[in-house]
């Protein structure tokens, strides 16, 4: 099991961002981590990537404890946060070299070439990041996240704000990446989840309200779209289209 979360809780002062949540994510599948804005998605992802500590409970990634073995966790995880951290003044290939150096890659030149091909950045590799469209900047973020060939990929709202043509390319890329690793894909856009995900976990107000294969979830709620299921479970219609 690549990711195991057991009774994870996070408090910010008196506010409980996540409340004793538990779920698992398996290799070779894309898990959709869904919820309204403010449901606790990003908080959970930051804990799983060892950016912030939990208040209680336990989480492991590839067997490494996120609190006690943070360095090991970061070696096996690729993370694309909601606000893609890029240096606009760097060229695409230059930025990938910078990230490769951080990871201490020995086969840096070959790996940069591989991820440029995988993410469709060949024609853009000699451009400055600041000159790219948002869709291509997202591809650069994904390339940085996978440069060290991680076993687990955690993507927080990677398709937010993209146009339909950009969405199609990013969706395919995420599905392709999910074939060989564990992918956790956070979104509040139900169409994205239906297009990309195999398994669905829905969080609402810090609590897990659904955890099942997408096909099974539809079977439990016959005749309903994922959007309708989401609304019935969360009471929220704050869904982006």
Helix-strand category: alpha/beta
Look at the structure and give the CATH class of one domain. Alpha Beta
Shape: globular
Oligomer: single chain
What would you say this structure looks like, in words?
- By secondary structure, the protein is an alpha/beta fold.
- It contains 9 helices and 10 strands.
- It is globular and about 50 Å long.
- The chain has a domain of 166 residues: Rossmann fold, CATH 3.40.50.
- 37% of the residues lie in helices and 26% in strands.
- The longest helix is centred in the C-terminal third of the chain and has 15 residues.
- It comes from Hufsiella ginkgonis.
- InterPro entries: AAA+_ATPase (IPR003593), ABC_transporter-like_ATP-bd (IPR003439), P-loop_NTPase (IPR027417).
- GO terms for molecular function: ATP binding; ATP hydrolysis activity.
- Keywords: ATP-binding, Nucleotide-binding, Transport.
Quick recap:
Pfam families: ABC_tran. The chain has 241 residues and is an alpha/beta fold.
């Amino acid at each position: 099991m690549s990711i195991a979360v057991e009774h994870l809780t996070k408090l910010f002062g008196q506010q409980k961002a996540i409340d004793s949540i538990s779920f698992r994510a398996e290799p070779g599948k894309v898990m959709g981590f869904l919820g309204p804005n403010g449901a606790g998605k990003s908080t959970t992802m930051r804990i799983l990537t060892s950016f912030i500590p939990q208040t209680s409970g336990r989480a492991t990634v590839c067997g490494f404890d996120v609190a006690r073995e943070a360095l090991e966790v970061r070696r096996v995880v690729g993370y694309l946060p909601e606000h893609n951290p890029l240096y606009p003044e760097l060229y695409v290939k230059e930025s990938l070299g910078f990230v490769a150096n951080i990871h201490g890659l020995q086969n840096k030149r070959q790996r940069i070439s591989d991820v440029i091909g995988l993410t469709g950045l060949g024609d853009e590799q000699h451009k400055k990041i600041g000159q790219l469209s948002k869709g291509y900047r997202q591809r650069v973020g994904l390339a940085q996240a996978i440069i060290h060939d991680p076993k687990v990929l955690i993507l927080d709202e990677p398709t937010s704000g993209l146009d339909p043509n950009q969405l199609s390319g990013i969706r395919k890329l995420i599905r392709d990446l999910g074939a060989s690793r564990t992918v956790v894909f956070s979104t509040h856009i139900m169409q994205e989840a239906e297009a990309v995900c195999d398994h669905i976990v829905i969080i609402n107000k810090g609590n897990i309200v659904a955890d099942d294969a997408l096909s099974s979830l539809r079977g439990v709620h016959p005749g309903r779209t994922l959007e309708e299921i989401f609304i019935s479970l969360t009471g929220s219609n704050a869904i982006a289209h």
